[in-house]
């Protein structure tokens, strides 16, 4: 009964990485070496994502434009507005740096793998979920940096620098485009070796988390993070997810979508991508306490997995019940 609420293996690996960075933080030449290795891993990650993303699937799903616009509006409009509007309630629960991380979380694209997986479990519109999640991930490379520039300006910073834009293009966009170009030759191979993408995906995240928390630990992360603020951060992440789930489910019904499309909107429009967020944070928040910035995303990631796993099963059980009821009243052959 309680197994569904236990952390998965990757979350366990994240926790161990944070612990390792707290006990053995990398510094000096090792920090430079790990930083360069992380950049290579991020570029390889986005190259493989570009090679994996099917252009045919995306083009085929464009006909369901109302659903895609609804998902994108939830991901890139509703979430940032919630972060802004709820600031008087949320900001006192956490430190200023953690709240900046919460705002960054609100600007990120949706996940791809887990959105599709949960939509499938819940018996939603899987083909449309593939298109919606993929479009969100692709557009996030452009939209998230724009949002972050506005956030930094609102917090007294200088907004987005040309150097940061150049790093986004070099580390994220160009490898992704190269992967799309190479898809003609290696797309089939990447699809047949999907676990490889998963290894690069998770490995790059763990590398970024290790280097980010190492630098933050050396700067006194755990001395600057009060325990009440950590508890407040859990409440903030849970509140954002709850509001997003309510907004997407009720919004889908109000807009007249069927149950399968509602499921797709709920699971694609309520999630945030750890795989995209951690590499972006490394580029966009240079000079900021990166450990504080990515901590809200790491907590939100685990909460969304646990909650959406339960929600997907509830949707699936509802579908089974409706199917049985329909069978009971169906005329005999």
Strand-helix topology:
Blueprint: H1 9-23, H2 29-52, H3 55-61, H4 65-85, H5 87-90, H6 96-107, H7 113-121, H8 126-154, H9 162-192, H10 194-218, H11 221-224, H12 227-254, H13 259-269, H14 274-284, H15 290-329
Description of the structure:
It is a single chain. This protein is 81% helix and 0% strand. The protein is an all-alpha fold. The protein has one domain (9-317): Na+/H+ antiporter like fold. The longest helix has 40 residues, at 290-329. It is globular and about 55 Å long. The N and C termini lie far apart (40 Å). Mean pLDDT is 82; it is low at 324-333.
CATH architecture: Up-down Bundle
Distance from first to last alpha carbon: 40 Å
The helix tally amounts to 15
**What Rg, in angstroms, do the CA atoms define?**
20 Å
Helix content: over 70%
Give keywords.
333 residues, 15 helices, disordered C terminus, 0% strand, Na+/H+ antiporter like fold, mainly alpha, 81% helix
Tell me briefly what this model is.
Helices cover 81% and strands 0% of the residues.
